[in-house]
Description:
By secondary structure, this protein is an alpha/beta fold. It is about 40% helix and about 20% strand.
Amino acid sequence: MPADTTDTTDTTDTTDSTDSTVGTAKAAAALSDVAREPGATKPDAILVADGIRRQFGGLTAVDVGHLEVQRGVITALIGPNGAGKTTFFNLLTGFDRPDAGSWTFNGRSLDGIAAYKVARLGMVRTFQLTKVLSKLTVIENMRLAATGQRGESFLSALLPMRWRGQERANTERADSLLGRFTLDAKREDFAGSLSGGQRKLLEMARALMVEPELVMLDEPMAGVNPALKQSLLGHVKTLRDEGRTVLFVEHDMDMVRDISDWVVVMAQGQIVAEGPPDNVMANQVVIDAYLGAHHDSDISVEAEEQRLAAERNRGADQKETPR
Length: 323
């Protein structure tokens, strides 16, 4: 998606900074005794995955032994391109099926449960490439996300008195969320006319129509201009401050360091590190996963020639050594 070039000012509410500070402190306290190692046990895990494996032909895209996501914190899932992050998201949320493994949400197994049912249970996700319904208006996108709508059945649709009250309540909630995400001015616009960043906001607002406990965001900052990025950062923090759990995939390390309470690192389909942001960023395993194990080596032509010459000299020395 091309970068969002809409001139949008930072709409983050600075009055919420105290709540965010409190939320950060609570998350730090909850994670203070958690081991800084892959597969670490959490004191109150909302999502637990065991032995999740997914292969495509001869390629193993995901091979996660054990992962727990702590309730009420912001967890970042990072890793180089091709690490398996989005595939892992798809498996957890029912958009794909693993070849092996089990996972639970609030202690309930999600194995074999369809994606829409997973969302109804309170575990919703957004997508790297937004899935807004372009030919519907913004408010129609929002209303469509509400669950348990009585007017969805054929017979009930013929009896407006059975669903009009619920529709009014859904519309009021949708308008409240649009105001929170500064999309109220776009209420009657077609979703397809929104900028890339505004679509990200709409997708996040639409996800909240479900009243989720766990919000999973797949690269929420991709293609978003810097001004709108600050607004999105504020909204992600607010989700945690409201008591929700956030698990997000991101490549922007400044963002990860800024808002995440815990970081999980994937490489080649496996979890290779976990811990607080500063701890993970300094982890040599993480550095090697992103930059390669020989990232600090001199790979110039001159260095390669010197290496080959050294190997030839060692070979000559071995031949001259008397037996």
